[in-house]
């Protein structure tokens, strides 16, 4: 009887509620007040109706004339919700659940869904990125686009890592939510709908699709290697840095306005290079931080260093000698904790000494993107090639000049 709404008589009173799973053999009802109540002795009076409990698969229609999209869920707020009727926290990872919650998706594309992980993104690791890249690579062979639902905290790390590992001729759209789908202010449905529209559009690259403002008026599609989560809780937390967003998707019309250059659908061949060197470290410099931190990681076998320096790309001058030694057998890339703008180590003495020591200017790359890029390069190329490629624009992570 699980999932059925019933009326019973127990302890001389009438009770109504939804039959819940029970491990004690007693009858457990989810009452209308939200509480669960257990009954050992009771008389079933009437079965009132069938209630859909999370996880039951309603049928969804498929339309031959619509494109086919794969939704791969990795977890995070967007993939979870509380079902108040049962109290269960479930993950929306079946196509049926996602489409039944956002039925408008079925007017855009046919959806197949797969749960790859059900983890909060602060727990993602580089090996998760590799497994995900391989799954997306396989999906791209048969689907017109791929959507990846992901926690927001580290979404830009995963998205940029995939963008380097996976050259795609079709849309690969990362989407998250700042508010879970059971809250009135949830951004989940709108973000999913805009992502679905993007996933069938004329673009061939990895994007992040999230609210463009705090209102429900449009989403932005950000280039995966130019986006960062810039607010802990606002729904428009994701912003393109040192680049314009690729597109604006108006809501609820779902009209797409292309804003900057993009890889078109079919422009690139599908290609996967799925290795990552995990011994690459991102170090945020702050006044007083001792250069010993470089020695520590070097002694642990790290040969890739991304420094989030100050201003145009500086660290304390007492780091110079250590950096000279580290650069002999490691790749050291300088980025800026200003995030906006670009590195230029040719203005001040400090910068010039850093260049002489062998530090590489990270141009206008975000620190996190320089990290995933260096992991990718050291994982798939030899040392000298990696050193050359790190300051070369590969997929839009470096804009030729800064206009912002
Ligand atoms: N903990 C957050 C994460 O998984 C939840 C979210 O924002 O999706 O990134």
Present as ligands are: D-aspartic acid
Low-confidence sequence ranges:
none
Number of helices: 9
Rg, please?
25 Å
Strand content: 25-35%
Arithmetic mean of pLDDT: 92
* CATH homologous superfamily designation of the largest domain: L-asparaginase, N-terminal domain
Strand line-up across the major sheet:
9-6-10-12-13-14-17-18
Class per helix and strand makeup: alpha/beta
How many domain regions?
A: 3
Distance between the termini: 62 Å
Task: Label the CATH architecture of the largest domain.
Answer: 3-Layer(aba) Sandwich
Q: Within the CATH hierarchy, at the fold level, what is the topology of the largest domain?
A: Rossmann fold
Count of individual beta strands? 23
Largest sheet entry: 8 strands, mixed
CATH class of the largest domain: Alpha Beta
Task: Please bin the fraction of helical residues.
Answer: 10-25%
Query: How does the overall form come out from the CA principal axes?
Result: elongated
Fold blueprint:
Blueprint: E1 4-10, E2 13-20, E3 27-31, E4 36-39, E5 43-50, E6 68-73, E7 80-83, E8 88-91, H1 95-101, E9 110-115, H2 126-140, E10 145-149, H3 155-165, E11 166-167, E12 172-175, H4 188-199, E13 206-211, E14 218-223, E15 227-229, E16 238-240, E17 247-250, E18 256-258, E19 271-272, E20 280-284, H5 292-299, E21 304-309, H6 320-326, E22 331-336, H7 349-357, E23 360-361, H8 367-380, H9 383-389
Parallel strand pairs: 6-9, 6-10, 10-12, 12-13, 20-21, 21-22, 22-23
Antiparallel strand pairs: 1-2, 1-5, 2-3, 3-4, 7-8, 11-19, 13-14, 14-17, 15-16, 17-18
Helix pairs in contact: 2-3, 3-8, 6-7, 8-9
